[in-house]
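Email to the structure team, subject: phenylalanine--tRNA ligase model.

Hi all, the expression group asked for a predicted structure before they design truncation constructs. Nothing fancy, just the C-alpha cells so they can compare against earlier work. One-line instruction: predict phenylalanine--tRNA ligase, return C-alpha cells.
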Amino acid sequence: MPTVNVDKEELYKALGREYTFDEFMDLCFNFGIELEEDTSPKEMAIREIGAGKVDDSVSDRPILKIDIPANRYDLLCHEGISRSLLVFQGKSKPPVFKVVQPPNGAPLQKMITSQIRPFVVCAVLRNVKFTDLNYKNFIDLQDKLHQNICRKRTLVAIGTHDLDTLEGPFTYEALAPKDIVFTPLNQEKSMNAEELMSFYESDKHLSKFLPIIRSSPVYPIIYDSKRRVLSLPPIINSNHSKISLNTKNVFIECTGTDLTKANVVLNTMVSMFSEYCAEPFTIEQVEVEYEDNRQPKGVTPSLDSRTTTAKIDYINGCTGLKLNPDEICDLLNKMSLVAEPSKEDKNEVVVQVPITRSDVLHQCDIMEDVAIAYGFNNLPRRAPSVSTIGKPFPLNKLADIARVELALAGWSEVSPLTLENKSHSLPIKVFEVGDTAIKDDSMERRSRNIRRVCATYSNKTSGLEQIHGLLDRVLKMLHCEPVEKDSKRTGYWIQDSENPTYFPSRSADIYLRQKGETKVIGSFGILHPEVLEKFGFNFPTSALEFDLEPFL
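Reply from the structure team: attached below.
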C-alpha cells in the first residue's frame, strides 16, 4: 500500500476541525484507509540517521503518514484525501468538473508521430494559484503516480510545463538521440540526448529511468511550434518550460505505452489540482491527432462519468444487510459515487462513476463501497449455520503435488517480479506453477484463469533432453503414462510442431487422451533466439509449459 505524507495542520483545516490521534485513526479506518503515525520530517530523519546528523533545516512541522489502497489513485495527495473525507462525512458533495474553452476559442493541438511510447494525452489548467504547500503536493502527486500506476515511468510518464513559455500546436516525435538538443531541467548547459544519458548515469533519482529508452534507436521528444523542447519522456523535462510558484497556466502531458493508464493518470492530475484554478474544477481540453490514424482524432481529457449498474440482491447478499435501493444510493453518495434506483429494474441501482474513481471496475467494487459507507463494524455478525471441516481446494492440492515433484527433480521454484540474479551460475533450472489469464469472450470478464506448469533450462547448450525428461517425470507422478499416437489407451504423447516461440524443428506439442477425447495440453522446445533477445537472456534455453487442470 502506498504511504502518503500529509501536512497535519492543513488537512485538519481542510476538514474543518481538529482531531485527536485516536479520532482521526477511527475516521481513516471507517473510510478504508489507515493512519500509520503522527510524526514530522525531522523526527523521521532522527530515527533513520540519528539526532546528531540531522540538519537544522529539516522541517519539524507535523505530518500524518496515511496508508492508501494501491488502486485509489485519487487519495495519493492532500487534496484527494481531504475532499473524499469531507464527502464521506456528509460535509461536502463531490465536485463537478467542467470543460472550459481556451482564450482564443480553439483547443491547443498536439500531433502524434512517435514510433516509441506511442500514446499521449494532454490538458491545460488555467489561472492556477500555487502556494508553497499545494506546489509541493503537485510535485509529490506526480512522484506517487510514477511509482504506482505508472510502474516507475515504464507505462506512463508525466510532464508539467509553464504554458506561457510555449506556443502550440505541439508535436510528439521520435528522433535519433544525436538530433535531440536542449537544456534539461535545472541545468544551464545545452546537450544532445546521447550526452544527456551519460550526464545522468550517476544521478541518484534519474539514472534508474535511463534504461527505459536508452537501447532504442530513436527517442521520444515533444516540441512546441517554435521547435522548443518540452520534454524527453520518460527521462526529464526541458528547463525552458519549467514550472514555478509563479506559473499561472499549466500544460500537462502524459506519454506512455498504455493509453488507458495514461488517461487515468491525466484525470487524476487535473481532478486534484483544478480546484486551485481561478474558477475551481475547470479544465481546458487539448486536441490530439495521430498522424498514422492509430487512434481517432479527439480531445483529452474526457471528463464524462461512466455509467454502470449493481444488483441490489448481490449487495445485500454479500453484506448480510437488507437495504432498499434508496438506502444503497445514499451510502454510495458518501463514497463520491452518484447513484439512483434503476427505473427499468427494481433489483438494480444505476451508478455514475466519476473520473476520480478509476478503481470501480465491477459491481463487487460498488458492494465494497456500500459496506465501507455502512461501516464494517456495523455489519451483522452471525455464527455459521453448519459446522464444516476445511480441506485443500483440489486444484491447489494438485499444484502443490506438482511443485514437490519439480523440486525433487532438481528444479528451483521462482517468484516472478520479486527477485532476480543475472549472474547465477549455470545451469539455471527454474519452474513455476500458477494461473495464466486466457482471453475468453464467453466469460463475464472476457478472460479466465488456467493453472499451468512452466519450467526452463538454461546452460551453454540448450538441454532439450533435460526438459523432455522433466515432462516424463512429472506426468508419471501424475499417473499419466506415455502411449502411442494411434493407441486408444489413456495417456500422453508428443508430436512435432512449428511454434514460432521455439527454434524451427526443435519443438513439440503435448497431447493428452482422456475418456476417449484428445487435446493439446502444452508444448516444449528450444526457445527461439529472438524470444531470448526480447527478454535480455544470453544463454540457450529450453522451455516446457502445460495445463495442469486436466489431471484433476
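The mean pLDDT is 90. The chain has 13 helices and 26 strands. Ping us if the truncation boundaries need rechecking.
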